Every structure is written in structure tokens, then in C-alpha cells.
Amino acid sequence: MKLFMIATLILTSYIVLDLVYDQWLWNISINTTIYLQKHQFDGEILFFRIISYMLFVMPVFAVAGFLFVDQKMEILLYGFVVIITSNINSSLKLIYHQARPFMVTDEIQALECNGEFGKPSGHAMISSCLVFLLPAILYPGIYRVQASNTNYPLTVRILTLATMSLVVILTGISRVFLGVHSIGQILLGWAYTAYIIVIYINYIHQPTKLFLSYSLQRGGQGLSNRFLINLTIFQIVWIMWNLLWQLLDKDVFIKNNELQNWLRAVENCYGYVPQSLNKNSPSILYNICFIQTQVFGFIYGCCIGIRQSKGIVIENTFSLNYRNINRTSKFYRIILLFLLIFLLLPFLFIRTDQTYVQAFLQIYLMTFLADY
Fold first, then answer.
1. Quick one: which of 149, 186, 184, 193 has its CA closest to 171?
2. With CB atoms counted within 10 Å of each terminal CB, which end of the chain scores lower, N or C?
3. Rounded to an integer, what distance in angstroms lies between the CA atom of residue 58 and that of residue 334?
């Protein structure tokens, strides 16, 4: 509990400092981005675009790990925390409702196009979560000395931490250079994710793992009705909370002239026909942030799927059983996974001018079915 209080105090203090020095950081960031873009070298845009999206390699490793290693529970929880972090980011963007640099400063080129709010940075939050959380769950010896034999040489630990830090820092720099985030938006994203990881690893991970292992053991009760009812209530409250902020942003907080300037910047970035975007367009600002909060359906779908399939967890038996499966069966396992994923692709082609239709019939339903 002491660590919880200290971490909460540090985060709260940083949030206050961010509010106080927001404009100062914004001005520094605008000048920095203009300087970097004016003095770029050949290939720099491509380099930073690659860096910016390099974080998506981590989910591929996680899926591969889920298919081929024994630690399936840990990888599943890792995915859940990444999704929760992404949802928190989208919700925070609705609360802060701050534009991206290219939306408000003509001197900044939009070298990457994003239509949602910018604060806190989603790339900063998700990249740091993806990179730092995986070893914390699967290889805790990277961070601290363990009582077991899972310790690593000091050199390996230092090099691993340095590499992870470099990837996250370069991701932040790339977003500033591309004109889609300010320095303050990046730093705030890192602060929130650091808090999430500290609290999760120290207070939530082990109890959650024990709860699921106990509930899903052979002959166990499975996920109880009470658990699913509470999860359903939380899901409804989560939707209503973000809907409230979406409506406040749309009708109260953002002035019409300010909104029109931001929309014109987004249109120019994407190459849209002028005046094609309006306050109700699903792909802009508060609407797309609200749509992105519905990715929580992935977790809800997983829990419903576990209940319906009567899924169980048997620790450390996968690799033993996997060795006894012939190559043809192993191949079919992978083909079946990709076939099921392929069946969800039509959802990606749903196009509508209705924000709530896209939120629930595309994003929520797709993510729900993906894990179900």
C-alpha cells in the first residue's frame, strides 16, 4: 500500500505540473518540431515512420507466444493490460480534448495523419506498455533479483533495459518530429503508463492470475455469474462515462471556430475534399476517441467465451502435449487461427457516417467476436 500511495502521489503531482506548465511545454514543442522538420536529412521521414509503428511488432510476438509457449495465462493478461491502457488513453483524450500540433500551427507539416485528439499520446502510452510490461510479466528477473533460478546477468539486464528505453524514447521523438504530438503529450503518456505498470505488477497481476487459475481449474466453477454480471455493469458504466465526455466535447467544450480550424487541418492531411468533415463525422476528434474506447469488447468477449466454452487452465502442460502432435496438426492449428481472423475482416470495411453505428457494430462487435 505504501508503494501505491507513493506512485499515486507522484502521478498526481505530475498531472498538476503538466497543467501548470502545459503552455510552456507546448511552445517549446512547437519550436522544436518546426526546427526538426526544417533541418531533416534524407530518409528521416521514412525512418521515423518506421520507428513510430515498430511497436506493433510486440503484439505479433505475444500472439506467437500464446500459440507456442506454456505461459498462456501471462500472455493473455498482458494483452488485457495493453487493451485497458489503450482504452484509458482514448478516454483521457476525451477529457483533455487537446489538439495535435499540426492542427493549430500552419508552419508544422502533418507528416503523419491522425484525426483524434492528441493528449496524452497514444503511441507514448501503448509503446511503453507493450515494451516494458512484457518482461515484467514473463521475465521479472530482468527488473529485479529473484529468489528462483530465473535471474539474468547484470550486463544482460542493463542492455535489455537500455534497448527497451531507446525504442520507447525514439517512438516519442518520432511523434514530435512527425507533427502529431507535443513534448508534453508524450511525457504525460509515459507518466500514465508508468503508473499503470507499477500498480498492475505490484497489486493486480498475481491476484488476477490466482483468481483465474482457481476459477478455471479442472472441475472448478468457471467464471461465475456474479463475475460476469459485475463485468457487464462495468462495461455499461464505461460506455456511459465515455459517451458523456464525447457529448460534452461535441456540444460544450470545443468552440465552433476552433473545431472548424482543426477539421480543415485534418482534411488537408488526409487529402479530403474541403468541407467534407463536420462535427458529426466518425473519423474526427471526440467521435473517433469514443469509438476507440469500445475496444474493451475484446476483454468482455474473452470472458464470455471462456464461460460458454467451459474453458480450463492446466499449467505447464502445453509444451508436453504439443510435442506429441504431428506436424500436420500443428499446421492446421495455425491455419484455423488465421481462418477465424479472416472471418472478421469484413467488419473493417464497414463505412458509415453514424458514430454510434461504427462504435458498436464495427469496433465493439468485431473485438468481442475476436476474443470470443
1. 186
2. N
3. 19
For residue 71, the model assigns a pLDDT of: 76
Nearest 10 degrees: Cα torsion 5, 11, 13, 18: -170
- Reported residue count of the chain is 372
Query: Residue 338: its pLDDT value, please?
Result: 75
CA 290, 295, 301, 306: dihedral to nearest 10 degrees?
A: -140
Number of CB atoms found within 10 A of residue 172's CB: 23
pLDDT tens profile 216-250 = 776 666 788 888 899 899 989 999 999 999 999 99
Tens digit of each residue's pLDDT (9 = 90 or more) over 76-121: 888 889 999 999 999 999 999 999 999 999 999 989 888 999 999 9
How many C-beta atoms surround the C-beta of residue 204 within 10 A? 13
Do 270 and 335 contact (CB within 8 A), yes or no? no
C-alpha cell at 123: 503511441
Q: Buried (b) or exposed (e) across 286-303, using 16+ Cβ within 10 A?
A: bbbbbbbbbbbbbbbbbb
Query: Could you give the angle at the alpha carbon of 135 between the alpha carbons of 131 and 137, nearest 5°?
Result: 115
- Distance in angstroms (rounded) separating the CA atoms of residues 60 and 62: 5
Q: What pLDDT is attached to residue 371?
A: 58
